[in-house]
Amino acid sequence: MQFKFTNANFPRTADGRVYHVGVKHGEVANRIITVGEPSRARTIAKLLDDNSPILTIESDRGFFIKTGCYQGVPISIVSIGMGLAMMDFFVREVRAVVDGPLIIIRFGSCGSIGPATTGSIMVPHSAFAVLRNYDYFADDAESNSKPYNITELFYADPDLCSKKELLQYIPQSELHTGLNGSCDSFYSSQGRLDNNFLDANHNLIEQILVKYPDTRTLEMETFMLFHMAKVSTPLPIKKSQANNKSIRVAAMMMVLSNRKTNEVVESERVAYLEEMSGKALLNVLSKVELDYEENGSD
Ligand code: R1P
Fold it and tell me: Boundaries of each Nucleoside phosphorylase domain copy (predicted)?
């Protein structure tokens, strides 16, 4: 690492770049699509206006950012990799370098444990987390402890997910809505069985469905996005607004597999879903109003 950082509480380079995402003020837009893979970010970035400049940043810690315009409106596409921790890095560090509201929509992939069909799109209204309880595996574990904790629900912004916004762009026959679980492992806490480890997860999917029968899908990031929006501190807003959280969020996922049948999506279908969803997300984000007044008065 060549950079010299100041402030151990929230490290930044001398020119104001946040430590892990690697961006500074002015390099990320208020409207953001976040994805897991740089290739998905590049695919969506091809839909940005070609008559305005596109800034590309790659951080040493695996974040990949493209900022440009769609129909004249600034939008960033940020690839964050995988997992709850990367979503936490992304939301906190981007929040630190962008003024005003943030509207963030995750475009990811997931597996189905319910009626969501392989190759369809899932738009969750809420998400919970499935977290491994490490204490259960300790030598001195309490006899009544459980190997996995399933959290309470955190919610998407209902306006962003409404039929007037995100849902209007997805063909009804290809769309599922409902509840999503975000797990802290691709393997153990998603109920995948691995004989190399004593994961105590043989009935985990059934336990998830007992607590939340409406669960459609499992993946690894959406819960943290919804959670961070919930705990984001308020901004000054117009008096007419009900929601003054500084971060508004939603998610949209491609259903790549079915955990019950082991069916897996074809790559041609993924290419179609990425293009169709990318256009939908850019349309929604470019039209959403920020409703922000810096002095907080009407
Ligand atoms: C696992 O293969 C990854 O794919 C899913 C999971 O949440 C996890 O990040 O999402 P992305 O395709 O958005 O990365």
Answer: 31-230
